[in-house]
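TASK: fixed-backbone design
INPUT:
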């Protein structure tokens, strides 16, 4: 067989030579100039089966059964070499295989070739097989995907040749949300094959290589410096036309650009002076050469909306611009543009000029990654864009964010009324999508601090860093009242007590400034969002119907009284503070006695229109949650109608913005959504845009960018991290540590910035590891000045150590992905348990629990000398070290009840049966002077507290209750019974509601029971 193959190959070479002799001399020269093919895969074993970061071939799929099986099979009929890549597949969802180059090596340059080709063994299935290549980015799994396909309509081996010009940008998925949407071919990371869905079969592939020589239109392109050129009436637009070549090589043939104005909404002669002509880049012109085309506009005395002048470019010898650039004569002279007029008058004027379609566009919010055609921003008149968790520009820097958002805002200038976008992000604990930003403790830790002014300062830092990147809107704070710590979002709450949540709403002023909105236009303030209205923290375990979630997005089953007292209470305070937007919850509400059963919050007009906008007087706008209307019953038109009529003003429809805006227009025209309702929604949206000053300054004000991640900002985060630490146990006064002690540090979360920042950090779910700059707890301990030995798994010898610090807890998660029962529980990992056991058996030990919720440690509590609830402290682990070493005193208190077992859940302050490990409000201190006294002292404190309450002396009243609490804690120590816990927790609630005398009475009851 080998001899037969050699004969056939010889014949093939002879026939090829004869064919080449028949070619014209010009064709022969062209062929001779083509570079030799460059092998990518020979499948002879030179590339292993491996995955990133190494170079290799690997499989993937939508579930465990979908990845194909692969092998290197010896085949006598192999088109190239001895082996082929062969495999079998049976795919129900999606699946295929990839060859990625090594991430540790430079990307490959494919720009000298015309395309990519390979041998494929056809089986005449008639199915399309998708083939994609990977361009730019950090590595093959963080690149830009370009795709095409071929059809298996043949039998046996066939060489598939795909010119690079056939590849199109993939619009349904991009691993990093897209980069520049340009197939440059100079930074290539490999290829991937997607096999047919719903099929099972075999395949074989061989000899992947780059072929042919690139023509100049692949190596040279003409671009403009922008797609939109806004100019004041009477000024001239200057369109810079740039010639760019791959590798910066000069062009070997002339490139001409013919230009001509016309075809837009502006009138030639009346609004602009027509221009036409040709600019030339001669042969030999270097990459980067620029020619400028000027388009003059005409000034008149008429007030007008914006008008467009397309500049048509016809390019010869290079690839043309992706879009026809548009000159936009700015809107001028209209009342809504007058910043001196009251906002209400400006809104009324602008609204009166808008069409139904333009209003629907303002009510539409899309995800930045969905805008694969940037002209859609103007084409659909979009009102808003957002970055979902982890949806970031490349590079993910402050400058990268500002440039991206300015580009989007520029697009909005091509609309009739040049209404700016309002861009939103989930900055839930700092500008957490941005690498290098200051990341605060999650809200659960802020609640533990019991410091409203500190909460406000964290909001101020967040707002300053967010606005400095061009983002004026933050989807925070979460005003959820977490009632069951099995909820994967419980760390987004300030606590389980609505009184505690209300006390932390000072963060709204930190974000927005003054209650009347006058500060929103400033470069360090953002629009805040109260979420998730209402009851998201009270869903019943097991009620969720979203995927594998167990509690998130489930059903909140309450009486009207419970709804008002627990879940609605924080929203009135937010409205009173002037919060600009409110986001409804994914969850359903089942109100006892109303006869409606569970109803999704996005459909509850009685609460959105009736309570929030009506009774509470909310005058901002309501923004839906991500694709939340898709969870409503009925067809799409019914879902749109239901949500809008319920009071949702703007719809977050990340990837279906076209469908939503069309459906909303149709519903209005059909009379099923009144134009009055649409006008109300759009007026609310425009009001906030005017308050933010976006009409006057739509682009990023980056003057504050130098403060992002600054020492001053990190100092606030460090203080917040310290204040969030709750000392639950401190037998023998092991804390604070002394610098003279030899400290042994262990545990999975001691040296992991990703784990200590948690979910919603850089990506939606967060990740372990060094994902962003910061100081780990271990680094903070080392910097504190003592002698430190670190052993993550506690395998290093403990001999000679004075004290051990074991940092354990959770790894990151977000939303329902983190629900208990959805791959998560409240138990420490086996490795963490082993580390605790090893260290605590050898030396005095301090255990820090880094987590978004309480962990069950009761079975090991006897061996632990000191226990600290560290929550998720953010990027400043030095703040944790500050309290460990006594630089700051422990002053934090539990924002939620710490249970003895999962079976106790839900357990909250005020429950009839209340016997936790540690009650709500518990928190020991390391203050130098801990208050002393007994019942007589408590009686005196009660008298003084009642007097302070009558006088409205809140600071004095709180101090008196705190003194009483510390006395009770000192007496009871770790002997916390139900008779102690219940009045102790009740006292904390009474304190937060200003009833200081009653709080001391409850603490006295706890003291007597202790």
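OUTPUT:
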């Amino acid at each position: 067989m080998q001899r037969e193959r050699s004969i056939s190959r010889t014949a093939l070479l002879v026939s090829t030579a004869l064919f080449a002799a028949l070619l014209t001399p010009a064709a022969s020269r062209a062929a001779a100039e083509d570079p030799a093919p460059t092998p990518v895969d020979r499948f002879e074993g030179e590339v292993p089966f491996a995955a990133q970061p190494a170079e290799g071939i690997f499989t993937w799929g939508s579930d465990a059964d979908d990845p194909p099986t692969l092998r290197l099979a010896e085949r006598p009929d192999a088109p190239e070499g001895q082996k082929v890549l062969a495999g079998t597949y049976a795919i129900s969802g999606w699946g295929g295989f990839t060859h990625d180059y090594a991430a540790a090596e430079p990307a490959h340059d494919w720009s000298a070739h015309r395309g990519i080709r390979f041998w494929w063994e056809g089986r005449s299935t008639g199915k399309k097989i998708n083939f994609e290549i990977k361009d730019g980015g950090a590595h093959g799994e963080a690149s830009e995907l370009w795709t095409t396909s071929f059809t298996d309509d043949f039998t046996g081996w066939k060489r598939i040749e795909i010119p690079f010009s056939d590849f199109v940008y993939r619009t349904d998925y991009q691993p990093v949300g897209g980069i520049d949407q340009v197939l440059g071919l100079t930074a290539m990371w490999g290829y991937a094959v997607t096999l047919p869905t719903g099929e099972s079969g075999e395949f074989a592939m061989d000899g992947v290589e780059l072929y042919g020589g690139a023509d100049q239109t692949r190596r040279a392109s003409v671009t403009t410096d922008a797609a939109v050129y806004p100019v004041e009436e009477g000024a001239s637009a200057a369109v810079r036309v740039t010639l760019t070549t791959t590798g910066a090589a000069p062009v070997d043939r002339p490139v001409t650009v013919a230009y001509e104005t016309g075809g837009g909404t502006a009138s030639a002669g009346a609004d602009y002076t027509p221009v036409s002509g040709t600019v030339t880049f001669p042969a030999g012109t270097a990459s980067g050469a620029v020619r400028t085309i000027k388009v003059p506009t005409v000034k008149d005395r008429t007030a007008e909306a914006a008008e467009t002048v397309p500049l048509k470019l016809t390019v010869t010898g290079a690839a043309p611009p992706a879009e026809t650039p548009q000159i936009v004569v700015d809107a001028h002279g209209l009342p809504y543009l007058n910043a001196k007029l009251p906002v209400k008058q400006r809104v009324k004027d602008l609204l009166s000029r808008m069409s139904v379609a333009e209003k629907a566009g303002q009510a539409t919010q899309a995800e930045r990654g969905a805008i694969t055609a940037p002209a859609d921003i103007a084409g659909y008149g979009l009102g808003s864009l957002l970055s979902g968790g982890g949806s970031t520009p490349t590079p993910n820097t402050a400058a990268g964010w500002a440039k991206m958002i300015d580009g989007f805002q520029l697009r909005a200038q091509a609309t009739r009324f040049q209404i700016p976008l309002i861009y939103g992000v989930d900055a839930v604990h700092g500008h957490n999508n941005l690498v290098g930003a200051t990341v605060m403790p999650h809200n659960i830790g802020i609640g533990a601090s019991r410091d409203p002014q500190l909460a406000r300062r964290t909001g101020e830092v967040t707002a300053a860093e967010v606005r400095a990147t061009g983002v004026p809107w933050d989807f925070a704070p979460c005003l959820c009242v977490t009632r069951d710590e099995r909820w994967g979002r419980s760390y987004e709450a300030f606590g389980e007590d609505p009184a505690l949540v209300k006390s932390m709403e000072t963060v709204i002023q930190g974000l927005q400034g003054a209650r009347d909105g006058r500060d929103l236009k400033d470069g360090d303030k953002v629009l805040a969002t109260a979420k998730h209205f209402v009851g998201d923290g009270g869903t019943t375990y097991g009620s969720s119907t979203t995927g594998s979630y167990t509690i998130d997005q489930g059903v909140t089953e309450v009486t009207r009284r419970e709804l008002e007292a627990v879940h609605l209470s924080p929203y009135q305070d937010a409205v009173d503070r002037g919060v600009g937007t409110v986001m409804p919850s994914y969850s359903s509400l089942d109100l006892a006695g109303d006869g409606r059963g569970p109803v999704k919050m996005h459909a509850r007009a009685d609460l959105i229109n009736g309570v929030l906008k009506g009774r509470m007087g909310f005058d901002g706008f309501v923004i839906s949650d991500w694709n939340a209307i898709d969870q409503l019953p009925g067809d799409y038109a019914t879902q749109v109608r239901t949500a809008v009529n319920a009071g949702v003003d703007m719809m977050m429809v990340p990837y279906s913005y076209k469908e939503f805006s069309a459906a909303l227009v149709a519903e209005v025209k059909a009379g099923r959504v009144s134009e009055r309702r649409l006008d109300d929604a759009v007026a609310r949206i425009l009001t906030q845009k005017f308050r933010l000053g976006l009409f006057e300054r739509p682009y990023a004000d980056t003057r504050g960018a130098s403060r992002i991640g600054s020492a001053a900002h990190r100092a606030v985060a460090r203080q917040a991290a310290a204040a969030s630490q709750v000392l639950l146990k401190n037998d023998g006064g092991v804390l604070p540590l002394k610098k003279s002690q030899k400290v042994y540090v262990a545990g999975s979360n001691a040296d992991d910035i990703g784990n200590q920042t948690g979910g919603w950090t850089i990506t939606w779910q967060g990740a372990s590891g060094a994902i962003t700059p910061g100081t780990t707890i271990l680094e903070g301990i080392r910097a504190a000045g003592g002698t430190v030995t670190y052993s993550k798994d506690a395998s290093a010898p403990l001999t000679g150590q004075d004290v051990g610090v074991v940092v354990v807890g959770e790894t990151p998660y977000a939303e329902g992905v983190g629900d208990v029962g959805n791959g998560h529980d409240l138990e420490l990992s086996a490795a963490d348990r082993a580390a605790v056991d090893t260290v605590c058996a050898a030396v005095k030990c301090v255990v820090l629990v880094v987590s978004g919720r309480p962990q069950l440690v009761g079975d090991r509590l006897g061996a632990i000398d000191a226990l600290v609830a560290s929550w998720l402290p953010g990027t400043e682990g030095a703040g944790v070290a500050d309290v460990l070493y006594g630089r700051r005193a422990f002053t934090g208190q539990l924002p939620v009840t710490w249970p003895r077992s999962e079976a106790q859940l839900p357990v909250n302050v005020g429950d009839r049966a209340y016997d936790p490990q540690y009650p709500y409000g518990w928190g020991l201190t390391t203050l130098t002077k801990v208050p002393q006294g007994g019942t007589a002292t408590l009686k005196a404190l009660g008298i003084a507290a009642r007097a302070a309450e009558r006088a409205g002396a809140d600071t004095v009243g709180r101090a008196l209750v705190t003194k009483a609490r510390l006395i009770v804690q000192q007496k009871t120590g770790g002997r916390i019974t139900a008779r102690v816990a219940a009045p102790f927790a009740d006292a904390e609630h009474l304190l937060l509601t200003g009833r200081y005398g009653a709080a001391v009475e409850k603490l006295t009851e706890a003291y007597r029971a202790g």
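COMMENT: The radius of gyration is 33 Å.
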